[in-house]
Protein: nucleoside-diphosphate kinase
Amino acid sequence: MTEKHPKFERTFVIIKPDGVQRSLVGEIIKRFEQVGLKLAAMKMLVPTPEQIEKHYTLDPEWRRVTGEKTIKGYLSKGLKPPSEDPLEITAKILANLKKYLASGPVVAMVLQGAHAVQIVRKLVGGTEPLTSDVGSIRGDFVLDSYQMSDPDNRAVRNLIHASGSPKEANDEISHWFSKVDLVDYKLVQDHILYDVNLDGLLE
Ligand code: GDP
Ligand code: MG
Structure:
Protein backbone atom coordinates (compact mmCIF):
# COMPACT_ATOMS: atom_id res chain seq x y z
CA MET A 1 0.00 0.00 0.00
CA THR A 2 1.30 3.48 -0.82
CA GLU A 3 1.67 6.11 1.95
CA LYS A 4 -1.05 8.73 2.01
CA HIS A 5 0.12 12.12 0.73
CA PRO A 6 1.06 14.51 3.61
CA LYS A 7 -1.74 16.87 2.45
CA PHE A 8 -4.26 14.50 4.04
CA GLU A 9 -2.85 14.88 7.58
CA ARG A 10 -5.37 16.13 10.11
CA THR A 11 -5.04 17.70 13.54
CA PHE A 12 -7.45 18.62 16.32
CA VAL A 13 -7.71 22.08 17.88
CA ILE A 14 -9.83 23.53 20.68
CA ILE A 15 -10.14 27.28 21.16
CA LYS A 16 -10.50 27.30 24.94
CA PRO A 17 -13.06 29.49 26.82
CA ASP A 18 -10.61 32.40 27.17
CA GLY A 19 -10.13 32.46 23.38
CA VAL A 20 -13.89 32.67 22.84
CA GLN A 21 -14.37 35.28 25.61
CA ARG A 22 -11.61 37.46 24.18
CA SER A 23 -13.19 37.38 20.71
CA LEU A 24 -10.12 35.72 19.22
CA VAL A 25 -11.96 32.93 17.36
CA GLY A 26 -11.70 34.68 13.99
CA GLU A 27 -8.07 35.74 14.52
CA ILE A 28 -7.02 32.22 15.52
CA ILE A 29 -8.80 30.51 12.62
CA LYS A 30 -7.37 33.15 10.27
CA ARG A 31 -3.84 32.11 11.23
CA PHE A 32 -4.58 28.48 10.41
CA GLU A 33 -6.32 29.37 7.14
CA GLN A 34 -3.64 31.77 5.94
CA VAL A 35 -0.90 29.15 6.23
CA GLY A 36 -2.92 26.95 3.85
CA LEU A 37 -4.72 24.56 6.20
CA LYS A 38 -8.39 23.81 5.59
CA LEU A 39 -11.21 23.15 8.02
CA ALA A 40 -12.47 19.57 7.88
CA ALA A 41 -14.95 20.01 10.79
CA MET A 42 -15.92 22.67 13.34
CA LYS A 43 -18.41 23.14 16.19
CA MET A 44 -19.04 25.21 19.32
CA LEU A 45 -19.92 23.42 22.54
CA VAL A 46 -19.64 23.57 26.32
CA PRO A 47 -17.56 20.49 27.14
CA THR A 48 -18.43 18.31 30.14
CA PRO A 49 -15.81 17.49 32.81
CA GLU A 50 -16.03 13.83 31.71
CA GLN A 51 -15.28 14.74 28.07
CA ILE A 52 -12.30 16.81 29.20
CA GLU A 53 -10.84 14.11 31.46
CA LYS A 54 -11.19 11.54 28.67
CA HIS A 55 -9.56 13.96 26.19
CA TYR A 56 -6.42 14.37 28.31
CA THR A 57 -6.18 10.69 29.28
CA LEU A 58 -6.68 9.20 25.79
CA ASP A 59 -2.93 8.63 26.03
CA PRO A 60 -2.48 6.34 29.05
CA GLU A 61 0.98 7.87 29.59
CA TRP A 62 -0.28 11.48 29.75
CA ARG A 63 -0.66 11.57 33.55
CA ARG A 64 2.88 10.33 34.18
CA VAL A 65 4.58 12.32 31.40
CA THR A 66 2.85 15.62 32.27
CA GLY A 67 3.54 15.14 36.01
CA GLU A 68 7.23 14.47 35.32
CA LYS A 69 7.45 17.45 32.94
CA THR A 70 5.89 19.71 35.55
CA ILE A 71 8.32 18.54 38.28
CA LYS A 72 11.24 19.19 35.90
CA GLY A 73 9.86 22.67 35.23
CA TYR A 74 9.86 23.50 38.95
CA LEU A 75 13.38 22.11 39.46
CA SER A 76 14.78 24.00 36.46
CA LYS A 77 13.57 27.25 38.06
CA GLY A 78 15.20 26.29 41.37
CA LEU A 79 11.74 25.80 42.94
CA LYS A 80 10.46 22.93 45.09
CA PRO A 81 7.66 21.00 43.31
CA PRO A 82 4.38 20.77 45.28
CA SER A 83 4.76 16.97 45.29
CA GLU A 84 7.40 14.44 44.21
CA ASP A 85 4.69 12.16 42.86
CA PRO A 86 3.98 12.93 39.15
CA LEU A 87 0.48 11.43 39.39
CA GLU A 88 -0.46 13.60 42.35
CA ILE A 89 0.66 16.67 40.38
CA THR A 90 -1.32 15.65 37.29
CA ALA A 91 -4.45 14.97 39.34
CA LYS A 92 -4.41 18.63 40.33
CA ILE A 93 -3.63 19.82 36.78
CA LEU A 94 -6.49 17.69 35.43
CA ALA A 95 -8.97 19.00 38.02
CA ASN A 96 -8.02 22.57 37.09
CA LEU A 97 -8.24 21.84 33.36
CA LYS A 98 -11.77 20.50 33.87
CA LYS A 99 -12.83 23.72 35.64
CA TYR A 100 -11.16 25.89 32.99
CA LEU A 101 -12.46 24.14 29.89
CA ALA A 102 -16.00 23.53 31.18
CA SER A 103 -16.37 27.19 32.22
CA GLY A 104 -17.92 28.31 28.92
CA PRO A 105 -18.22 27.58 25.21
CA VAL A 106 -15.21 26.36 23.27
CA VAL A 107 -14.73 25.98 19.53
CA ALA A 108 -13.48 22.56 18.43
CA MET A 109 -12.15 21.96 14.94
CA VAL A 110 -10.28 19.59 12.68
CA LEU A 111 -7.70 21.12 10.35
CA GLN A 112 -6.26 19.37 7.34
CA GLY A 113 -3.16 19.95 5.25
CA ALA A 114 0.51 19.02 4.85
CA HIS A 115 2.14 18.39 8.24
CA ALA A 116 -1.00 19.75 9.92
CA VAL A 117 0.02 18.58 13.41
CA GLN A 118 3.49 20.13 13.40
CA ILE A 119 2.47 23.30 11.54
CA VAL A 120 -0.38 23.99 13.98
CA ARG A 121 1.89 23.38 17.03
CA LYS A 122 4.39 25.86 15.55
CA LEU A 123 1.67 28.50 15.04
CA VAL A 124 0.22 27.88 18.53
CA GLY A 125 3.58 28.14 20.37
CA GLY A 126 4.87 26.66 23.65
CA THR A 127 2.49 25.63 26.45
CA GLU A 128 3.32 28.41 28.93
CA PRO A 129 2.43 31.82 27.47
CA LEU A 130 5.26 33.52 29.40
CA THR A 131 7.80 31.71 27.22
CA SER A 132 5.80 31.09 24.00
CA ASP A 133 7.60 32.59 21.01
CA VAL A 134 6.65 36.04 19.77
CA GLY A 135 4.67 35.57 16.57
CA SER A 136 2.94 32.43 17.85
CA ILE A 137 -0.73 32.64 18.89
CA ARG A 138 0.06 32.12 22.58
CA GLY A 139 3.05 34.47 22.36
CA ASP A 140 1.02 37.22 20.69
CA PHE A 141 -2.30 37.09 22.53
CA VAL A 142 -1.84 35.97 26.13
CA LEU A 143 0.40 36.70 29.12
CA ASP A 144 -0.26 33.97 31.69
CA SER A 145 2.39 31.94 33.54
CA TYR A 146 2.66 28.96 35.94
CA GLN A 147 4.02 31.47 38.46
CA MET A 148 0.56 33.10 38.47
CA SER A 149 -1.67 30.06 37.89
CA ASP A 150 -0.12 27.53 40.30
CA PRO A 151 -0.51 29.49 43.56
CA ASP A 152 -4.11 30.28 42.56
CA ASN A 153 -4.72 26.58 41.91
CA ARG A 154 -6.02 27.15 38.38
CA ALA A 155 -5.03 26.05 34.90
CA VAL A 156 -2.72 28.31 32.94
CA ARG A 157 -4.85 30.22 30.40
CA ASN A 158 -3.17 29.47 27.12
CA LEU A 159 -6.07 29.93 24.67
CA ILE A 160 -5.72 26.75 22.65
CA HIS A 161 -5.25 23.01 22.69
CA ALA A 162 -3.60 21.42 19.66
CA SER A 163 -2.72 17.74 19.15
CA GLY A 164 0.92 16.86 19.77
CA SER A 165 1.29 13.98 17.27
CA PRO A 166 -0.66 12.38 14.39
CA LYS A 167 -1.62 9.48 16.72
CA GLU A 168 -2.91 11.93 19.37
CA ALA A 169 -4.76 13.79 16.61
CA ASN A 170 -6.54 10.64 15.40
CA ASP A 171 -7.61 9.70 18.93
CA GLU A 172 -8.79 13.22 19.74
CA ILE A 173 -10.69 13.64 16.45
CA SER A 174 -12.67 10.43 17.13
CA HIS A 175 -13.26 11.55 20.73
CA TRP A 176 -14.78 14.94 19.77
CA PHE A 177 -16.30 14.30 16.34
CA SER A 178 -18.34 11.61 14.61
CA LYS A 179 -17.21 10.30 11.24
CA VAL A 180 -20.14 12.05 9.52
CA ASP A 181 -18.96 15.47 10.83
CA LEU A 182 -15.71 15.23 8.86
CA VAL A 183 -15.93 16.60 5.34
CA ASP A 184 -13.60 15.56 2.51
CA TYR A 185 -13.46 18.31 -0.10
CA LYS A 186 -11.10 20.23 -2.33
CA LEU A 187 -10.21 23.90 -1.94
CA VAL A 188 -9.34 25.80 -5.10
CA GLN A 189 -6.01 26.72 -3.45
CA ASP A 190 -5.02 23.03 -3.08
CA HIS A 191 -3.82 23.17 -6.70
CA ILE A 192 -1.20 25.89 -6.05
CA LEU A 193 -0.18 24.31 -2.72
CA TYR A 194 0.24 20.70 -3.76
CA ASP A 195 0.04 19.96 -7.49
CA VAL A 196 3.31 18.93 -9.13
CA ASN A 197 2.55 20.77 -12.38
CA LEU A 198 1.18 24.28 -12.27
CA ASP A 199 -0.45 24.07 -15.67
CA GLY A 200 -3.81 25.65 -16.32
CA LEU A 201 -2.95 29.01 -14.68
CA LEU A 202 -2.46 30.96 -17.90
CA GLU A 203 -5.39 31.83 -20.17
P1 GDP B 1 0.12 21.43 25.29
O1 GDP B 1 0.08 20.21 24.43
O2 GDP B 1 1.07 22.49 24.83
O3 GDP B 1 -1.25 22.01 25.56
O4 GDP B 1 0.66 20.95 26.71
P2 GDP B 1 0.53 19.55 27.49
O5 GDP B 1 -0.24 18.56 26.70
O6 GDP B 1 1.89 19.18 27.97
O7 GDP B 1 -0.29 20.00 28.76
C1 GDP B 1 -1.69 20.11 28.74
C2 GDP B 1 -2.09 21.10 29.80
O8 GDP B 1 -1.55 20.70 31.07
C3 GDP B 1 -1.55 22.52 29.57
O9 GDP B 1 -2.38 23.27 28.71
C4 GDP B 1 -1.51 23.05 31.00
O10 GDP B 1 -2.80 23.46 31.41
C5 GDP B 1 -1.13 21.81 31.83
N1 GDP B 1 0.31 21.78 32.06
C6 GDP B 1 1.27 21.23 31.27
N2 GDP B 1 2.50 21.41 31.78
C7 GDP B 1 2.32 22.08 32.96
C8 GDP B 1 3.22 22.56 33.98
O11 GDP B 1 4.45 22.43 33.91
N3 GDP B 1 2.64 23.21 35.06
C9 GDP B 1 1.28 23.38 35.16
N4 GDP B 1 0.81 24.02 36.21
N5 GDP B 1 0.42 22.95 34.22
C10 GDP B 1 0.93 22.30 33.12
MG1 MG C 1 -0.70 18.25 24.77
